[in-house]
Design brief:
heterodimer, A: about 325 residues, mainly alpha, 12 helices, B: about 325 residues, MetI-like fold, two-stranded antiparallel ribbon, 2 strands, elongated
């Protein structure tokens, strides 16, 4: 199968997956008990008002009509009107998106930049003291609830040491006048950095640990292969061996894990944003669920799923590009 | 055992291999610690189930502290023994301190074990079973069956676990059984994918061809040959997944979608502690530690099993 056909096939599959996500969330929110209109305007409103609002949001129509209309609207980039905020869902999502993107991007960067060197070092120093320390770190990292790390960091760095703020996030591009303790751009960047530090560690630790573990085992596997032994026998220096022969070949499994960690990071953002009171998409989902704001729940879930599906698609394509052994059809054709 | 089974060699684990695996697990120092930890945690959970669910906290209330209501006169937010905060000095009666309602933290931790283990193990088991069947069918038949099932699996995979669970719990109600079903739903795709890729390699083995030639029906080939021969990675994944699921359950309780008060659960304790982190940080410390130790235990066993099944990475 040619690369183009493979890309087309994967794109088609992604569309079906997203259609599945819309259908699933649509069915779920519609199976939910509780009247969103009632929650929104309160129990004291009279029946006529309730009905008029219901008609306004189209909630009085049969399920299948609403479903197909929703799909049609989504295809035109319209995720509907948030019942709770009275603005288009897309507007709300894009309002909250920068905070979540900043958080996820910074924690991912932190995770990848620390995990890969540590994983390689750990494999190189196998069964020595530093390897044991790194392995324990990795094990604890994948076993710790991220929100607990967040709470402990707040207790230590905010309450006891008074060093770092525990709430909110400041965008690096915010106007200095709108930011506390800031008069210049440098101040804003500084405030942004110190606000970002604890949430990044909170969200990034799990990713770091997961990537570190796979990096180590993948490196070990490659280092065990005959061509490495052969190179070693020829007197290739240990670091050269690591850098030129082993490292590149060990990165494919790591790539898969990094791709899959994206969904963990998105899910984790819900918790991290809650712990640090960050107005991102994660907290938007919680608001949506508590207010039974159907369009908002559907829209945010679909948005997260889209990011994930696109992420996995990119990983797959990178994989096919990087590993010439992979036939584009996979094993199933 | 049929003749075809004896053909399965090398990469797949035969039944005789299982005794080797358990022996290796016991010999490996780190996984042995995992076994100890999990044995203790499960024993505590069983006790919490017997006394908490079946006897309505009879023993706890008679001989110890109730995990759901405060003892009369108990002070709230006490620190652990030997430490003093603005609410007083820790006492041996409450070795880990008390929470905001004056309930013993240790008692709540002990009885909170049940929720974590019950959901962790039951949901993982259910999800692994359903996922294995879906994955086996998907991998064995291929073609359009595979396509449809894979899109279905990906649908569940594409939504972040926490978000999907929140949606499920807020739709169907915030109770234990919904949580178990929900967690098994999000666990299913993990195993479906895993088994499918295993099956794709097992499917090509000669003994499957032999079984087909001998006229064995598809259903029996899947049930008697494909699934048993793909089981080693499932066992590894299931052990690790129990840990993941305990983390998910804790996260849900933390967000308020788990066991409802006053039922003790680790995640809910962490959520309650947020307001009191400044005066009594210990209140936030213990439940997280309980989660950490339990999940580490499962991960140690999982890692040990993986090493035992995979001779290439002998330490």
């Amino acid at each position: 199968m040619s690369l183009i056909r493979y890309v087309a096939r994967r794109l088609g599959q992604s569309v079906f997956t997203l259609l599945g996500v819309v259908t699933l969330t649509f069915l779920l929110v519609n199976a939910a008990p509780g009247d969103p209109i009632r929650i929104f305007i309160g129990p004291s409103a009279d029946a006529a008002t309730v009905e008029s609002i219901r008609t306004k949001f189209g909630l009085n129509q049969p399920l299948h009509v609403r479903y197909f209309r929703y799909i049609g609207n989504v295809l035109q980039g319209d995720l509907g009107q948030s019942i709770n905020y009275r603005v288009p869902v897309t507007q709300k999502i894009f309002e909250r998106l920068p905070a979540t993107l900043l958080l996820v991007a910074s924690s991912f960067t932190f995770a990848v930049l620390t995990a890969i060197p540590i994983g390689v070092l750990s494999a190189k120093q196998r069964n020595r003291f530093s390897d044991h320390v790194f392995r324990i770190l990795g094990l604890v990292g994948v076993s710790t609830p991220s929100f607990w790390i967040g709470l402990l960091l707040i207790i230590l760095f905010t309450y006891h040491l008074g060093l770092l703020p525990a709430t909110g996030l400041i965008m690096p591009w915010a106007a200095p006048a709108a930011v506390d303790n800031a008069t210049t751009r440098i101040d804003v960047l500084y405030q942004s950095a110190i606000h970002l530090l604890l949430p990044t560690l909170t969200l990034g630790t799990l990713q770091m640990a997961a990537i570190m573990r796979i990096e180590r085992s993948s490196m070990l596997e490659v280092l065990n292969q005959e061509y490495v032994t052969l190179a070693r026998a020829f007197g290739v220096k240990e670091w050269t061996l690591l850098r030129k022969h082993a490292f590149r070949n060990a990165q494919l499994p790591v790539l898969t894990v990094v791709g899959l960690q994206l969904t963990t990071a998105l899910g984790g953002s819900v918790l991290t944003e809650t712990v640090f009171s960050i107005s991102g998409i994660g907290t938007l989902i919680i608001t949506g669920v508590n207010a039974r704001d159907y369009p908002l729940i559907l829209g945010t879930t679909l948005f997260y799923a889209t990011i994930f599906v696109v992420g996995v698609l990119i990983t797959d394509l990178l994989y096919a590009y990087l590993d010439p052994r992979i036939s584009y059809g996979g094993g199933d054709d | 055992m049929s003749d075809a089974d004896s053909d399965s060699v090398s990469t797949q684990t035969s039944l005789a291999g299982w005794t080797d695996v358990t022996a290796q697990l016991r010999q490996n120092a780190t996984s042995r610690w995992g076994l100890y930890v999990i044995a203790v945690v499960i024993a505590v959970a069983v006790w919490a189930f017997i006394d908490g669910v079946l006897l309505g906290y009879h023993f706890a209330e008679t001989y110890w502290h109730s995990p759901v209501t405060a003892d009369p006169g108990a002070r709230s937010l006490l620190p652990p023994v030997g430490i003093t905060n603005e609410f007083g000095t820790g006492v041996w009666a409450h070795p880990l301190g008390t929470d905001h309602r004056g309930r013993d933290i240790l008692a709540r931790l002990v009885y909170g074990t049940r929720i974590a283990i019950q959901i962790g193990i039951v949901a993982t088991g259910l999800g692994a079973a359903v996922g294995t069947v879906i994955g086996a069918i998907s991998g064995y038949y291929g073609g359009w069956v595979d396509d449809v099932l894979q899109r279905l699996v990906e649908t569940f995979y594409a939504i972040p676990f926490i978000v999907l669970m929140i949606a499920i719990m807020s739709t169907f109600g915030r109770n234990l059984w919904i949580a178990i079903v929900g967690v098994s739903v999000i666990t299913t795709p993990v195993f479906a994918r895993l088994i499918r890729s295993e099956v794709l390699s097992v499917r090509e083995e000669e003994y499957i061809e032999a079984a087909k030639a001998a006229g064995v029906r598809d259903r029996n080939i899947i049930r008697r040959h494909i699934i048993p021969n793909s089981l080693a990675p499932v066992l590894v994944q299931a052990t690790l997944q129990v840990g993941v699921n305990i983390l998910i359950v804790a996260a849900l309780s933390f967000l308020g979608f788990g066991a409802q008060p006053p039922t003790p659960s680790w995640g809910a304790m962490l959520a309650q502690s947020r307001t009191y982190m400044l005066p009594n940080p210990w209140f936030s410390f213990w439940p997280g530690l309980a989660i950490l130790v339990t999940v580490v235990g499962f991960n140690l066993i999982g890692d040990g099993l993986r090493d035992a099944f995979d001779p290439r990475l002998d330490d």
